[in-house]
Amino acid sequence: HHRMFLEPQEKKRSMKALVVKQAKKTCSCTPAKVKDCVFGFFPILQWLPKYKLREYLLGDIMSGVIVGVLLVPQSIAYSLLAGLEPIYGLYTSFFASIIYCLFGTSRHISVGIFGVICLMVGQVVDREVERAGYDLELSTLPGMAVHANTTSWPLNQTSQELLCDKSCYAIAVGTTMTFIAGVYQVAMGFFQVGFVSVYLSDSLLSGFVTGASFTVVTSQVKYLLGLDIPRSGGVGSLITTWINIFKNIHKTNICDLITSFLCLLVLIPAKELNEHFKSKLKAPIPIELVVVVAATLASHFGKLKETYGSSIAGHIPTGFLPPRPPDWNLIPNVALDAIPIAIIGFAITVSLSEMFAKKHGYSVRANQEMYAIGFCNIIPSFFHCFTTSAALAKTLVKESTGCRTQMSGMVTSLVILLVLLVIAPLFYSLQKCVLAVITIVNLRGALRKFRDLPKMWHLSRVDTVIWVVTMVATALISTEIGLLVGVCFSMLCVIFRTQRPEAPLLGWVAESETYESLAAYKNLQTKPGVVVFRFEAPLYYINKECFKSTLYKQTGVNPVWVKAAKKKAAKRMLREKEMHSGDNPTSINMDFVAEPLGFHTIVIDCCAMQFLDTAGIRTLKEVCKDYEEIDVQVLLAQCNPSVRSSLIRGEFFKEGEDHLLFHSVHQAVDFA
After folding, report:
1. Where does CATH 3.30.750.24 sit in the chain?
2. Where are its TM segments located (predicted)?
3. Does residue 357 contact residue 364 with C-beta atoms inside 8 Å?
4. Per the CATH hierarchy, to which homologous superfamily does domain 505-568+597-671 belong?
């Protein structure tokens, strides 16, 4: 076998030249570059001129109308979850659909109100409203009229003279947080840190959404029962809320309870039928709208509020409020809370847009998606809206009803506009418990993930554990801490996997040059005098001790002990010599000679080592030196270029010895 000598490539350019070239490229300004920049920032300019009216229009109109019809009751219901007036949910859905249409690169996703984010907004809104001195015990009915003249933000939140009512202060908090979250998302897009979403794995996001869904369901139970208890926020809010519910269960409003039960009886089977006959139905039955209309009529004509004291949606004004900037004084209070909201919002949007793009064979740009979702938060925050992101359920409806482009988003906005201008006040008598039922029923998908656990466990135990840990932490501690726990735990899982990796001895497949694990395969052969060892992880400071101990265990020889035993034996032999010096000098007790080792060479297969750090290089040096002292040579095989250059830079080889790096295990064994 001839030795292979690979000549390394010369580095083409110095770092300075590369930086200069990149700077010239970035700072150059040609008409073509300006055009690309504008078209990249406003994707609508690319697809709208190519819009095929005959082919696309019908599908877009149909899907837009259906999503709009579904969004109306959900927007009102989710406003309740965010602790805000119903009208603000409609504003949010209206603006988000238009803005995403201008900036988004995905053709299918529906951007609007997402339950988990509403919950996170609602928790902060309640905390800030309480901190500002409003009494949460007061009826949390969003029944006050919201007019332009009442919506003046307080100048100083600590002043006793509160300059606007509770509902208007709540939306001030909501819009300020939405603005900050949008700024974070645009900044992430600008600095191209879309990679942050890489740390939010599918199992982590799924666990987070399921855990948050429990909190959402819990926050809505009081409406189902017609109880008037303050929302618990902070750590352990799920448990606190259930304790409060059971303490006050004797105050249950029977009328609300019956209404909730009837709505559940209608909504759940109808939703299941919609899913079951998805392929046969051209469009899903807008059962939520039917329930909302029927419940509103029943409540209005049955005078449920007056007779039974049911809590109702109250006055929903028509038209738009004049735009107002967020309350800059509130920024320090909510800046930290906006970080998890911004990250979850863009992670869900990017993952959904990529999923649908892959399914339909087009590409989306993650950074542009971050700009799009950022502007879907920044611009509407001036129009009394709260935080949005892509929503899976509505996206699936949109896709299945024939959506082809984001033109369907424009149609959805028109449907909501119609409601805003004409229909909204008609929902005055709608019971809140109906809205709570709609919110809970829409979480079926997230809560159904428990069914997939056995399959997930079979596929990957680590992913399942990450899912469970994130879900439990999100539900029992809080949404923000749950997300943080999930991210940290995921990273720890990766570290633990490299901390104690597989490290088998290898055997030779007969009549080939292939070496495989002796523990995994039968009928492998070994070459006498040569041990082949593979370490299946990068060698760095965390696992250096594991590398040594596993190598010593697998080879059955710890060179330090052997060396110590030899020294001990030599000393004893010397003593014996001195004792028997008077007798025959050749009669030395041969028991003291160390027993011979079963091998003379160790070949370390480095194919699975992605990198070495200084601790890794030092460990390899120590291992080689220790084995050398007991006459065992250590050879390295299949090092990748990164490991190879680390070894050369770390002066692993003595002068002219770098030929002892082998390109294959077979070569190293032959050399041995």
Report:
1. 505-568+597-671
2. 56-81, 87-103, 168-191, 203-225, 330-350, 371-393, 413-443, 464-492
3. yes
4. STAS domain (3.30.750.24)
pLDDT tens, residue by residue, 332-353: 999 999 999 998 898 889 888 8
Q: Token pair for residue 106?
A: 């995905």
Q: Which of 321, 444, 326 is nearest to 386 (CA)?
A: 326
> What are 389's two structure tokens?
């992101």
pTM over 0.85: no
Residue 349's alpha-carbon distances to 136, 344, 372, 376, in angstroms, are 33, 8, 10, 11
What is the amino acid identity at position 243? Answer: I
**Contacts with 290 (C-beta within 8 Å, 6 or more apart), sequence order:** none
Nearest CA to 607 out of 540, 535, 528, 541 is that of: 535
The CA distance from 49 to 151, in Å, is 41
- What mean pLDDT is predicted for residues 486-509? 89
Q: Indicate the DSSP class of residue 314.
A: -
DSSP strands (E only) in 64-145:
111-112
Neighbours of 214 (CB within 10 A): 18
pLDDT, tens digit (0-9, with 9 covering 90-100), for 103-162: 999 999 999 898 889 989 998 998 899 888 886 544 443 433 344 334 444 444 443 334
Strand 505-508 versus strand 389-390 pairing type? unpaired
Residue 75's nearest CA partner among 114, 125, 126 is 114
Strand partners, 661: 636
- Tell me whether strands 389-390 and 111-112 are parallel, antiparallel or unpaired: antiparallel
**Mean pLDDT on 192-207:** 79
C-alpha to C-alpha distance for 587 and 593, rounded to whole angstroms: 13
Neighbours of 499 (CB within 10 A): 14
Q: Which whole-number Å values give the CA distances from 417 to 46, 141, 565, in the listed order?
A: 26, 24, 88
